[in-house]
Amino acid sequence: MIAWLIALPAVVAAFTLTHRVLRRRGRAVLRVITVMNLLLLVGAVALVVVALTDTPAAASGTQTAAASSGNSAALIGAAVAVAGASIGAAIAVAYTGAAALAALSERPELFGRAIVVVGLAEGIAIYGLVVAILLIGKA
Fold first, then answer.
1. Where are the alpha helices (DSSP H) in the chain?
2. Nearest to 139 by CA among 57, 66, 48, 60
3. Are the CB atoms for 82 and 128 separated by under 8 Å?
C-alpha cells in the first residue's frame, strides 16, 4: 500500500507537466506526450505488480499471503470496473445529452424520450458499480 502513496506525487507531477506541454503546439510536443504516456504506462504496470506481489510479514502463514494476493486482485478489479464503466458512461452521456438538447431545441415534446435515452447511457456506470460490489464481496 505504501507504493501507491509514494507514486501518487509522481503521477500528479506527470499530469501537471503534460498539461503544461499541451499548451504548446508542434511535432515535438507530440513526441514528448507519447514518451510521457509510455512512462506513465510503465509506472502503472510496476505499481500493479508491486501491489499484487505485496505480501504480509513473514510471521504469517502462506495461506494468508495467498488470500491477501487474491484480495488485492479483487480490489484492483473492482477499481478497474468502476473506472471503465464511469468513463464509458461519461462518453455516452456526453453524446446522448448533446443530441437530446439539440432535439429538444427543435421539438420540445421529445423531452421524455430524450431523458430516457440519457438515463440508459448513465446506467452503464451503475453496472460497473454492481460488478465492483460483487468483486469486493468476494474479496
1. 2-22, 27-53, 62-106, 111-138
2. 66
3. yes
Angle at CA of residue 119, ends 116 and 123, nearest 5°: 135
Angle subtended by helix axes 62-106 and 27-53, to nearest 10: 140
**Mean pLDDT, contiguous 10-residue spans, the chain (139 residues):** 67 73 70 78 78 60 57 82 90 92 92 90 90 85
pLDDT value, residue 55: 58
Q: What is the C-alpha to C-alpha distance for residues 44 and 122, in angstroms, rounded to an integer?
A: 28
What is the pTM for the complete model shown?
A: 0.53
Whether residue 131 contacts residue 81, with contact meaning beta carbons closer than 8 Å, is answered with yes
